Amino acid sequence: MTTARIIEDDRKTTQSGKAKAGRWLLEFEREQAMRPDPLTGWSGSGDTPTQVRLVFDSKDEAIAYATRKGFDYHLVPAAPATLKLQAYSDNFR
Length: 93
Prior knowledge:
Layout: E1 3-8, E2 24-28, E3 35-36, E4 43-44, E5 53-56, H1 59-69, E6 72-76
């Protein structure tokens, strides 16, 4: 049975806006172990569903898709964002 991860896409540290925050990604977990290619030494496997990433606007849409397709899934919520508010003058105390 294929297992999927439903991940809440959080804001990247280099972004100041919130345009793409709140999206949910559905990724498939690896079913085969990675193995080195004997010729090049690169790691790879024949597990191609791990290359698929689906984007949903809400958690409910992602869960509905996973249940409709018969995937086992688990949710990975984003870490809560905390703001550290400080004034410029705090650097000199």
